[in-house]
Automatic annotation (TrEMBL):
Keywords: Nucleus, Repeat, rRNA processing, WD repeat. The keyword Transcription does not apply. The keyword Transferase does not apply. GO terms for biological process: maturation of SSU-rRNA from tricistronic rRNA transcript (SSU-rRNA, 5.8S rRNA, LSU-rRNA). Residues 35-57, 552-584 are annotated as: Disordered. It comes from the Eukaryota. This is WD repeat-containing protein 46. Coiled coil: none annotated. It comes from Sitophilus oryzae (Rice weevil). Residues 411-489 form the BING4 C-terminal domain.
Length: 584
């Protein structure tokens, strides 16, 4: 093999075994300002010579380099099968039963799109860097032995600051968090109302309404909240200024806000169930349930239906579109004391006065999944984002972990208060349980209860004023109408078969009808001047008259229109003022 030496200061080119491929050794190039330029000129000469050769199989551009192989470059992320099953859309279509080639190709393309979407959704879990953590006990110990003081001492300073207690004097209190879990509003039975940022402990407003307060709830933003007072429902802003008073919502006991529909749902002491559209300030619907006093209410986030608990052991589900309940479940043989629905809309927990606690699959409306017998009758229930269940009875709060899929033998955590419990809620995206008691408010640390990964496009706890304005406008544009609230949201995407059948039958009846023939002999009636013109004009008049009569006769076969039964307004006559006036 020959060796080509350029100079001491330049690169050395060596011929390889394949003769057509040349390797350049640039190890001898000195670090001079002109050395690189000479090297580039030298390389360009050889490149041009190599391009001019007609017998060369491999161009000079494909010089061998010490790079990684293609397999190493295209190393893909191997998705675990468990994650793929989590995002799978079901079993694939059996193509053996598809006989036509066109339909087979369409189905194959659809299956490829579904597979790509499943893999793409599973890959997004790589970006979810945060993981949930739980308490683990040593041998011979249980997690219920850990107190709040021990947990606060073991965690970091930021998490320890989320465990605090407010001692107040106007209880019993009720509390509610915002959707992003950043702000908190509390209301005492003796009229004390306060809203604040519980993370930074910054107080927004604090007022005394001088009336009894039965429930509080934030609206679509933290700048507005509703208070169910003695007689009516009042709206306040974050500065404590009264914005509105709705007198049609009287003697309200519980409130729930539907964020995607902008509806404030309320149940009253007189048995009325109401939905108020806060975007336009009008009542969407209001029904008398005829089921007595309503004091137990929660919402199903999956389909936006309201779940009410009654004294006969029945849980009824309501929508603003129907005067009667969409479904009724006989859950217990004793009066129901508490109802709660999982944030994903999969599980529902109910408690009764006979100390029973049951977990239901709310999508199937069938028998209970799990049954528990407690020490005393629970008065409050709450699900967390990680399907932990908090049970409150008396002055004790117990938190159960994995109680929906399997039977929990003992509680995950337990905490005892000095006063009876008003209500409690899990804070979204935080391992915190906020408990309102007769003498204040307490924030408890529950490791592993919150969702660690935040979707900032859905709810953002760290949003600025500009982002809050944009989120409000976007939510109003994406507002869902109350007419779409049903027990099964998938029904909206299906075809209304009865209405479609009626329309098809009406069209079929019209197809078998034939227009009447026009019997007209123009020769006999064409007299005088312009006989052909009269003949064409008369024929056109008769045709239009026949079409008009035919359309009137077929109008009864079509489905009725919504405004058909309304009476037409009579035309105004100027002489009506001289008629004698009717006695009222």
């Amino acid at each position: 093999m020959g060796k080509l030496t350029v100079s001491n200061d330049m690169a050395v080119a060596k011929e390889s075994k394949s003769k057509d491929i040349i390797e350049f050794d640039v190890s001898n190039v000195k670090s001079k300002p002109w050395g690189r330029r000479r090297e580039d000129r030298f390389n360009e000469k050889f490149k041009n010579k190599q391009r001019n050769k007609t017998s060369s199989k491999y161009p000079i551009d494909k010089v061998k380099t010490n790079t990684k192989s293609k397999k190493e470059k295209k190393r893909r992320y191997e998705i675990p099968e468990e994650v793929l099953k989590k995002y799978s859309k079901g079993e694939e279509v059996n193509l053996k039963k598809v006989h036509t080639k066109i339909h087979r190709t369409k189905i194959e393309q659809r299956e490829r799109n579904v597979k790509f979407a499943t893999e793409f959704a599973a890959k997004t879990e790589v970006l979810l860097t945060e993981e949930t953590g739980f308490l683990e006990a040593d041998d011979g110990e249980t997690t219920t032995q850990f107190t709040q003081g021990a947990i606060a001492d073991s965690v970091d300073i930021t998490s320890a600051a989320k465990q605090f207690e407010l001692k107040l004097e106007f209880g019993p209190y009720r509390s509610r968090y915002t959707r992003n879990g950043r702000h908190l509003v509390i209301g005492g039975k003796k009229g004390h109302v306060a809203a604040f940022d519980w993370v930074t402990k910054k107080l927004h407003c604090e007022i005394n309404v001088m009336e009894s307060v039965h429930d509080v709830s934030f609206l679509h933003l933290e700048t507005m909240f509703a208070v169910a007072q003695k007689d009516w429902v009042y709206f306040y802003d974050h500065q404590g200024i009264e914005l509105h008073c709705v007198k049609r919502l009287n003697k309200v006991t519980r409130m729930e806000f539907l964020p995607y529909h902008f509806l404030l749902a309320t149940c009253s002491d007189e048995g009325y169930l109401s939905w108020l559209d806060v975007s336009i300030g009008q009542l969407a619907s209001q029904y008398n349930t005829n089921l007595g006093r309503l004091s137990i209410m929660t919402q199903n986030p999956w389909n936006a239906c309201l779940c009410l608990g009654h004294a006969k052991g029945i849980v009824s589900m309501w929508s603003p579109n129907a005067r009667d309940p969409l479904a009724k479940m006989l859950c217990h043989k004793a009066p129901i004391t508490a109802v709660s629905v999982d944030p994903t809309g999969m599980y529902m927990s109910t408690a009764a006065s006979n100390r029973e606690l049951k977990i239901w699959d709310i999508r199937k409306l069938e028998g209970p999944l799990q049954e528990y017998k407690l020490v005393s009758a629970p008065s409050n229930l709450a699900f967390s984002q990680k399907k932990m269940l908090a049970v409150g009875h008396g002055n004790i709060v117990e938190v159960y972990r994995e109680c929906c899929t399997s039977t929990a033998k003992r509680p995950y955590l337990r905490h005892r208060f000095n006063n009876p419990i008003g209500n409690f809620n899990f804070c979204p995206f935080e391992d915190v349980l906020g408990v309102a008691t007769n003498r204040g408010f307490t924030s408890l640390l529950i490791p592993g209860s919150g969702e660690p990964n935040i979707d900032s496009l859905e709810v953002n706890p760290f949003q600025s004023k500009a982002q809050r304005r944009e989120a409000e406008v976007k939510a109003l544009l994406d507002k869902i109408q109350p007419e779409l609230i049903t027990l099964d949201p998938a029904v909206i995407a299906e075809v209304d078969v009865p209405t479609m059948r009626d329309k098809i039958e009406a069209k079929k009846n019209l197809l078998f009808l034939k227009a009447p023939k026009i019997e007209y002999n123009p020769r006999n009636k064409a007299k005088g001047k312009g006989g052909s013109v009269k003949m064409a004009r008369n024929k056109k008049i008769l045709q239009e008259q026949a079409i008009r009569e035919f359309s009137k006769s077929t109008k009864d076969l079509l489905p009725n229109k919504p405004n058909e039964g309304k009476k037409k307004k009579q035309a105004y006559n100027v002489l009506d003022r001289f008629l004698p006036k009717k006695k009222s």
